[in-house]
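It is worth pausing here to work through a concrete case rather than discussing structure prediction in the abstract. The textbook approach is simple: state the sequence, then state the predicted structure, then interpret. We follow exactly that order.
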Amino acid sequence: MSESLHPDCPQEAVPVKVNRVFDSCSDKDCLTGVVVRLEGCELPPHSTFVKTKCVSIRDVCISVEPVPFNRGFYSIDLTYTFDVDLLVSEHACEPGMPLHGTATAAKTCILYGSESATKTFSSSGACTGHTNHCCNIVNLPVASVQVVDPVVLEAKIGRGHCKCAAGESEMPHRSVILTLGLFSIVELSRPVTVLVPTYPYTVPTKACCANSDSPCQVFSRLQFPAEEFSPTPLEATGNQEGCGCDGS
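Step two, the predicted structure:
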């Protein structure tokens, strides 16, 4: 076998179309004052306690605009929409009444996305590059956001504006107000053509097999989870600076 066909040596460089990430950022946001818009708009009149069952991200609306007088940089406006499931009650020991609502929160970041005045057409009918008028072509980069469901840091009953089908009320009503912790990664990318080395294709050496053991045989090979029966003392967690949520 010749040296060029050695599996550890590249054969040639081939052009590949990829989305190159020009800039990215990671954020750890604490979103305060997030008002929950409940179905039916108002809380039960005697409710004083609220708990969150689940808060999940339904959608993220992303808008990309060039930053004036700073070529190559773009402002990314993000609007998060959350689905919120709550339990409200009059007293702390009572079973809560389930309620459902939605909430929104917005943030903005600025990233570098390079510049391109080209228009790209493909056989699929897609076209990238927007023409504002005949002498101004803006080919925007593509923004993407990776995000996990938020951590509920606080849920309380307060005063907030309620947005119902008839529109947003002028006077604040009793509402559920959340404080959320959110982790996210935002990226700006463009399609580019790059050269990459190629290697000979190798056949996988792992054989395809199905486990024919009985459930009891599989269970017998599991180790006994001794750690589950041994509660961890505080000094073993490494958190000895404080005994409360506020670090005091």
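Step three, interpretation. DSSP finds two helices and 13 strands in the chain. The helical segments are 215-220, 234-237.
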